[in-house]
Structure to design on (156 residues):
């Protein structure tokens, strides 16, 4: 079967993927933030352990305390790690002044702090899922430069 769109999609390079994600982030940053915050695989595992993820720095500490039973399933580790990175990034963006998602030219989502420092939160999340290091709360502390974003009115 010849599906030109699918051929183009499968053959695009990282630069094209990065450009598309960067354009989406520029057009609808709140929508992309919402998409990145879903982290469904991580939320399912956390919920199964009795932990509800609320987007707070304290929830990162609670995740660090979970028994890493997922490491028994090598197929789930990368997915969980990506979600952990997205969740870490979401907590940073929601709590640190001037922190925002950005997309590197290779298509990798990352966090840019107000200082200009860039954080590869996805790499940190994958490392956490695979080895437990760095702890998510420790990675969050590394992003602690700058002020804390005041809570939004009506936010839970």
């Amino acid at each position: 079967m010849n599906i030109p769109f699918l051929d183009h999609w499968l053959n695009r390079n990282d630069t094209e993927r990065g450009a598309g994600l960067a354009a989406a982030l520029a057009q609808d940053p709140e929508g992309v933030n919402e998409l990145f915050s879903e982290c469904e695989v991580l939320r399912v595992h956390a919920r199964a352990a009795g932990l509800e993820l609320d987007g707070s720095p304290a929830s990162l500490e609670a995740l660090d305390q979970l028994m890493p039973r997922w490491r028994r399933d090598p197929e789930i580790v990368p997915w969980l790690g990506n979600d952990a990175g997205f969740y870490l990034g979401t907590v940073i963006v929601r709590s640190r002044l001037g922190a925002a998602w950005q997309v590197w030219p290779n298509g990798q989502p990352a966090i840019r702090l107000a200082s200009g420092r860039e954080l590869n939160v996805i790499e940190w999340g994958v490392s956490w899922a695979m080895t437990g290091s760095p702890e998510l709360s420790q990675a969050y502390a590394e992003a602690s430069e700058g002020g804390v974003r005041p809570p939004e009115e009506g936010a839970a």
